[in-house]
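Per reviewer request, we include the raw input and output of the structure prediction for the construct analysed in the revised manuscript.
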Amino acid sequence: MNIPSAKSYQHQNYLHSLLLLIAMLGLLALIGFSVAGPAGVLGAFAIFLLIIITGPRVSSRFILSLYRARLIHPEQAPELYNGFYKLVDKAQIKYPPALYYLPSQVLNTFTVGLKKDTCIVISDGLLRCLDNRELTAVLAHEISHIRNHDLWVMFIADVLSRLTSLLALSGYLLILLYLPMLILYEQLVPWLLLIILVLAPNISALLQLALSRTREYSADLVAAQLTGDPLGLASALNKLEYYQHSWIERILLPGHKVPDPSLLRSHPTTQSRIRRLNDIAQEFPQHSGIFNTDDTDTWLDTAPKKNPRRRISGLWY
């Protein structure tokens, strides 16, 4: 069987991401032209560039305060930071991210911030659930997002999607204003324009989700290259998928889950990610380990365990 190489998968992901961004730009140009002709296209792109260059950024510290996350100091977790620094050095990241602890049993990790302000947040549940090998792989995945500039790419995609929706709303208002004139002068309703205005925001949102899925695939592959251990990440993904269900579901309804439609997912299915990692595992030597699996940090033993609940900020953790 011809197993695709990691490099082949990576090239496919980069090409896919580029095509999706071009499609979102084209959609923005189309709706701008539909609303105001060539001036609409120029105006849409001018606003887009203005937001990208000078637009406000939400501080990562503000986001972390909403989650009540707190900084993990190197002296608290020397073993964790030992492996983390090795991954950062190997990824050649100019501005190393900070590590934050989220006191919640939700199994979650995420990255916030851009450029010098990036932070990786790891939940209490995730730290207790994964072994050192799996935790290495998960950290490598988040570091890969930073190395690949995924946060910046998704910021651009979000701006494109929001501008498309804003232009569509402007088109609705223009049609409403001109509707009495269309009725009085018995002119045809611009059905084509209406169809474009209705479909464009939804198509842009779907393209944004597809781009997010592609960047997840790419981060998986780069993480495998950083650790040299694709099966470590596959093991972590498999464990996270398992613990997403309650113990009653695991006993009475094993493997039973109503899947979300693939087009509406921000992440690929766990099975497809594991399959890709298994495909490329043959290219890597046997796992040597970035973490020393015999040593563990003791600070987590005294950390508080908190059950997830909905907070005043609207976030669930």
